[in-house]
Amino acid sequence: MTKRILHNDWHDYLHKEFTKPYYLTLREFLKEEYFTRTIYPHMNDIFNALHYTPFSEVKAVILGQDPYHGPNQAHGLSFSVQAGVPPPPSLENIFAEMESDLQIQRPPHGNLVHWAKEGVLLLNAVLTVRAGQAHSHRGKGWETFTDQVIKTLNKKETPVVYILWGRAAQSKRSLIDTSKHFILQAPHPSPLSAYRGFFGSKPFSQTNELLIRSGQKPINWEIPATAINN
């Protein structure tokens, strides 16, 4: 019997992916990469987005591109950094918009596990990266896997709100069943593009309005001052 990789209900939906040729090729690539180079996040954190937010609890999805490639930043959740690591500029802009949108105080850290536990799937399109080399694991197979995550979410009876920031995230739009689910789009929160429409887009309040309209409990976006580590 193969080792169970996912530890919650995602296993029931995705376990077949781990035996497909594309994933077996990706797995061999990753074994070599982790053995010979510095790769982020830690191999035990690769699937944290799925582990922290079970399929049955997903209310919203924030799609990122690939993990942060600086030391001790990435821990398997899009845009999130480990406690004790200064929030990168994009995350600072996300907090600024949250503050403006909801009039809640930004946290003193950049750990977004609270959002994940509230039902926000913090999914990157590519789940690993070489230290200091953005997009270095692009095109190795992760995109096929994360496409399948989105296709799987189409099966949910309750609507999911997709928050798509920037072109890379918006390229996944065609995978989303818009007859059932909602999409909110805006420019990426990067300092290069945040002033082109990210600021003022009110994604947090809009998400909650859509959830309430569809009979779901809104997300508590206010992140506790003390980071959640598990």
Describe what this molecule looks like in 3D.
Helix content is 32%, strand content 10%. With 230 residues, it is of the alpha/beta class. The chain is globular, with a radius of gyration of 17 Å. The strands form 2 sheets. Strands 3-2-5-6 form a 4-stranded parallel β-sheet. It has a two-stranded antiparallel sheet with strand order 1-4. The model has no long low-confidence stretch (mean pLDDT 95). The longest helix has 16 residues, at 21-36. It is built from 8 helices and 6 strands, in the order ααβαβααββαβαβα.
Helix content: 25-40%
- The total of beta strands comes to 6
**Individual helix count:** 8
Report Rg.
17 Å
Order of helices and strands: HHEHEHHEEHEHEH
Multimeric organization: single chain
User: Approximately what portion of the residues adopt beta-strand conformation?
Assistant: 5-15%
Label the overall shape: globular
Taking the alpha carbons of the first and last residues, their distance comes to: 28 Å
Topology (SSEs and partners):
Blueprint: H1 10-14, H2 21-36, E1 39-40, H3 48-52, E2 60-64, H4 89-102, H5 113-117, E3 120-124, E4 129-130, H6 142-153, E5 161-165, H7 166-170, E6 182-186, H8 203-213
Parallel strand pairs: 2-3, 2-5, 5-6
Antiparallel strand pairs: 1-4
